[in-house]
Write a structure and sequence with these properties.
Layout (H helix, E strand, L loop, with lengths): L11 E7 L6 H8 L6 E5 L6 H7 L3 E4 L5 H11 L6 E4 L4 E3 L1 H10 L7 E12 L2 E3 L7 E8 L3 E3 L8 E3 L3 E12 L4 H24 L15 H12 L6 H15 L6 H29 L6 H12 L5
Parallel strand pairs: 1-2, 1-4, 2-3, 6-11
Antiparallel strand pairs: 4-8, 5-11, 6-7, 6-8, 9-10
Helix pairs in contact: 5-8, 7-8
């Protein structure tokens, strides 16, 4: 009879979702090796050397057909052979800073059973520069939780991890979102994000998807839940030409984004204005294209064909 894996106090499993991440995956695994050997790469059938590199560095690799980030990560929670007391979510282009690694190692074993989730502070590196202003640091998000005590919201965009019970704490150290690709990749990625977010916005009005959003200020990052609430109750109700312009001015002027230099101007304009405007424009376009659909199934089918998303 096969014995159940032994859980070691303070140990941690790290789950990384990948698709064609050969540029980042070695850096990610080597960085995490200072914290744990239990690294699980959930790959969406990459066509580059991602899987080969991950396995050569000792990671456990599983492959699953991709639908969206939320479904892929929850699939990992259900199917990967996780055995540690704690689980961490990390992207392939993210790295933990030394002070955070030390903090995790020292504090995890000391946390009481009532603590089931841990928020981390993310910093964004863009064109080689840390974007410190424009309300972009710190971005606080729940990234570590006790195994079995959290799930990822079932959403197409802006999905967060939330604990199912217990309390959360926030660590002081940082991890960095440090993508090594060029601006063309950034634009292509955000164009894809815009389609997913436009679908999310349409779903709030037409309710054609059975999603499960359960983010609150108690079960995840207070900052993330507050931003979600402001976005849904205020920002999304303003016409997008106005809201995107106001948001950029708020970030760049009132939140001092101009202090981030030339790189900051590029980042805040593209991510704080162009991307927000693009989401609104795509929502308008998709709304017009599905105006003749009379059922939820027809809406899902039409949007799937228009966006390439597997909505059905």
């Amino acid at each position: 009879m096969k014995q159940a894996p032994v859980t070691t106090l303070g140990s941690i499993d790290v789950v990384i979702l990948t698709y064609n991440e050969e540029v980042h995956i070695a850096r990610a695994i080597q960085n995490l090796s200072k914290l744990t050997r239990n690294i699980f790469v959930i790959d969406s059938y990459s066509s580059d050397r991602t899987v080969e590199i991950a396995r050569s560095l000792g990671a456990t690799v599983l492959q699953n057909k991709f639908v969206n980030q939320a479904k892929q990560f929850n699939w990992a929670l259900d199917n990967a052979p996780l055995s540690s007391e704690w689980v961490m979510r990390l992207d392939a282009d993210e790295v933990l800073e030394p002070d955070l690694i030390q903090e995790i190692q020292s504090k995890l074993p000391q946390l009481g059973p009532e603590i089931t989730g841990i928020n981390l502070k993310r910093k964004h590196i863009f064109m080689g520069r840390w974007i410190k202003h424009g309300d972009r640091y710190p971005l606080v998000m729940l990234r570590i939780w006790r195994r079995g005590c959290a799930r990822v919201e079932d959403r197409w965009m802006d999905e967060h991890v939330a604990v199912l019970h217990g309390k959360t704490v926030t660590l002081a150290g940082n991890f960095a979102d440090w993508n090594l690709h060029d601006l063309s990749h950034f634009i292509q990625k955000h164009n894809a994000y815009a389609a997913r977010e436009a679908v999310e916005l349409l779903n709030t009005k037409l309710h054609f998807l059975d999603e499960n959003s359960f983010l609150t200020t108690e079960n995840s990052s207070f900052q993330a839940a507050l931003k979600r609430r402001l976005k849904e109750q205020v920002y999304n109700r303003i016409p997008f030409p106005v809201s995107s312009t106001a948001y950029f001015l708020y970030r760049y002027i009132f939140r001092c984004g101009f202090l981030d230099g030339k790189e900051g101007l590029v980042y805040h304009f593209l991510q704080g204005y162009w991307y927000r405007f693009l989401v609104g424009a795509k929502q308008l376009e998709l709304s017009r294209r599905i105006s003749g659909a009379s059922s939820k199934q027809e809406i899902r089918k039409a949007l799937g064909e228009l966006t390439g998303l597997r909505l059905e």
